[in-house]
Design goal:
Helix content: under 10%
Structural class: mainly beta
Distance between the termini: 40 Å
Order of helices and strands: EEEEEEEEEEE
Largest sheet: 7 strands, mixed
Length: 116
Amino acid sequence: QVQLVESGGGLVQPGGSLRLSCAASGSVFSMYDMAWYRQAPGKQRELVAVITTGSNTNYADSVKGRFTIARDNAKSTVYLQMNSLKPEDTAVYYCTAGKVTIVLSWGRGTQVTVSA
């Protein structure tokens, strides 16, 4: 089973940028569809972005045009570039690995806080 470790979270001002990384190990990274989820305090976990094994991408409406998901199979890493951040983007961000709609592994998460 694949293990996932996120990094890159932190505190950023509104309008700023962050890049999250998720390093995978323990399995063949290129076999998995990768995704980022987030969960804000008191809210349900939501899907933010997905990148398939064929590098097709999909985004939540709330982040379209601001966030970009990418993968580097040679480094077994998936990224989430977040630009024009808003306070409502504050959440714990989780990386997942799966196949189609089935999530097989979750990372432990990284906190992103957008505040002045």
